[in-house]
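The protein record reproduced below.
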Amino acid sequence: MSWIQLAELSEEDLLHLLDDVTDVESGGQDGALSPVAVTTDNRHRVRRSKIEKESRRRRQATLRAMREQVKTLHKHLDRLATALLEQPDPKFDDAVVAPPATTSVASSEVLRDKYLALTLVTQRLIAEEHDLKKKLRVQQEFSASLQKILLKGREEWIELSWQARVNQTHEHVPECEIFRVMHECFDLISKFELSKNYISSGMSFLGWHDKRRLDADGSVLNFSFSKFFAGRLAEPMMMTTWEFFTDEARLRKEAEESGGRFSSRVLQQPNADVVLLEQLAESSDAPRMVSVLILFRLRVGKDFMIVVRTFPMPSIQESLQAEEMWIDLFYWTHFKVVADGTEVTWGGSMSPEYFPSMSDFLVSSFGSVVAWENACITPAIILSESECVDTKCDK
């Protein structure tokens, strides 16, 4: 059966339809306005009247269409009613509607047995679930306890390894071997500073100028940064720098601030100007750094020099653990006396495996010399003129 689509009307159109029912019944027709001269207000009124009449005609047409659709629906309804009245009455079989009593009783017993079986299975599954949860809880507690034990054991092992390294005994180094290394360091520094074959970036950072040279075989990169300090004496600056390099408390504090720890121990001290140190540095995100350093100071004419060099120690290098790394260092600070002040040269040497990019090298090196200047040199702006030439120009 096909359905007849009714026209969709808004609430406003329905209200207008109800208002115009009388007009439709009477079949009145609206006449056209006589063309007369009107004012502007009358012209708007006439235009609005035309619009309203046109809207009324549309609503009347819609209402006529709806009445035709209602008549068509009445015809369809009459045909459906006639068809239903002409159908014969259905006949029902009593045997199908009411099954035998024996079948109903047997089905009930079967369902009851299945229900009891499912109940037993459910109870057994609930008991197994309880046991599994209990075992899982025990397993989780055991895993957490084991993890704590392993973590504690690792921390204890790290601490034990640290203490063993700190308290490790070393063979005595002959003084002739110490002075031989000192002589090699002095020769290398002198050759580099007297050499004219070097390159420079040509820039100045806070008064520091750089120069560097790569050895002929490309095995060592030597570099230095120089700055002139007017009105400063070389010896007080050297004394302050010596205290800066040997200040274990400062180094330990810096390591603790960065989340690590530091240890420094004097192994040998042939005299007041030469000391053999063992230094350990450890952090959470890097291997433990182990090094034995020879720290010495020299007086060359009126100039002073402080040198730090890694000293070979086979007993330590051969006993390094997997989490430890041997560090090779070589750097120096040269205080040159000039007519009206002191020129400070901070230099160093590194092997190819430590070669960084040139930009990283300049940034890190400038940072090191500026940190030294900030810690050891009192700004001239807070010194009086007499203090600048006094022996107390150190910080």
Remarks:
- The two ends are 108 Å apart (CA to CA).
- Confidence is low (pLDDT under 50) at residues 1-7, 21-38, 92-101, 385-395.
- Strands lie at 204-205, 208-214, 221-230, 261-271, 274-283, 286-300, 303-310, 324-326, 330-338, 341-350.
- The first helix runs from residue 11 to 19.
